[in-house]
């Protein structure tokens, strides 16, 4: 039975659904945990007025963390708060406004802005608050003391602007990225992790008794400060790399998943989750469990899920009649008992006539997704080579969207033009470059197509390359690691995500088979 006494969850992108509300299953799970004697609270970047409704809905009876750690409050009021002066930031904020970057200034009662842009309107709708407009050219706003400043816009432009001003500032400030287009300026030394440590002292809870859950990099030190740090499926790649538990489901469903996996909810609880109670193994099951079962088959995929691996890799080609199917080789010769010829020259009906290992069949991509949905994060490798499979990218994306699995998958390929086409078709789906060797030349292209993963043959991975990926916020995958000595090397670097055929050996070597 788990020793977890306190659960601390981020809100946006974690506990909340995509529509920024608390689902009934999430509220039911919180009620069940608290009824069993547990403590539950939130840690968010939001300020007090933007969480008041959720505090009531969750019936929080212990302090909670606001403003990314700058404020600790409860239903009676503020317990502790840090603040910053706007005067040193005045010229920076004026220039940000000139560049079309929206700014928000927060105190304990209101959010202030200089003009009502579409970004501000979206923020108001999401957090159910109304911002107060202040005159940018008046001096009184510069005299304010605030809890934090939030800039909304193109992150590259914001970071470049901050870099040009930061060295000129005498007063130190902290900064964090709390969403894809959210850049926050906060008091120095403030973070969710630091606030959580303060909260643990208040509640007389040990770090080993804490489960924290998040999805963005502002949650990282909170996860690292906890006995279990969980990342929901829709998390930033680097957070996924550093988390001790990776959810296969996103948002609130992921929160329920880890609560069930740690046996924090009674059987048949109101939340009705579906996650295995086994300890999760952080790693990519390469084509399923091919050292025990035929690769890229449903029985092999099931075995990886039964072991509770966090990720699974599969390969996609197209049949003659344009159906995405799961098989690694360009031909069926190696894998099938009774087939010969290229996959692209055989119809789905013809492919389904072939057997693998006597009893298995080549799965369609749809069949594979049906098996894996809500169970494991899926690395979809497109076996595209030039124009070998016209339209493959569109067909795969359509199937992923049909199954509602956009947040549960990412798409990889050796063919980088293929990835470029995927990005042109979908500006949000996760992407990963595959290469044999490691090169600094990969990073500009990865940035161009917003690529969050990089998969490199393990012999070519060096410590400087690992550090570069960490700095760039890219999840580095080491493939295919099957020898115990190589596994021990990978285990030295927590940010590496291993891809292996030897699932149980990796669980043993990495100490995840408890």
Automatic annotation (TrEMBL):
Keywords: Hydrolase. SUPFAM superfamilies: HAD-like, PLC-like phosphodiesterases. The keyword Hydrolase applies. Residues 281-510 form the GP-PDE domain. GO terms for molecular function: hydrolase activity. It holds the Pfam family GDPD. The keyword Coiled coil does not apply. InterPro entries: Cof (IPR000150), GP_PDE_dom (IPR030395), HAD-like_sf (IPR036412), HAD-SF_hydro_IIB (IPR006379), HAD_sf (IPR023214), PLC-like_Pdiesterase_TIM-brl (IPR017946). It comes from the Bacteria. PANTHER family: GLYCEROPHOSPHODIESTER PHOSPHODIESTERASE, CYTOPLASMIC, GLYCEROPHOSPHORYL DIESTER PHOSPHODIESTERASE. This is Cof-type HAD-IIB family hydrolase.
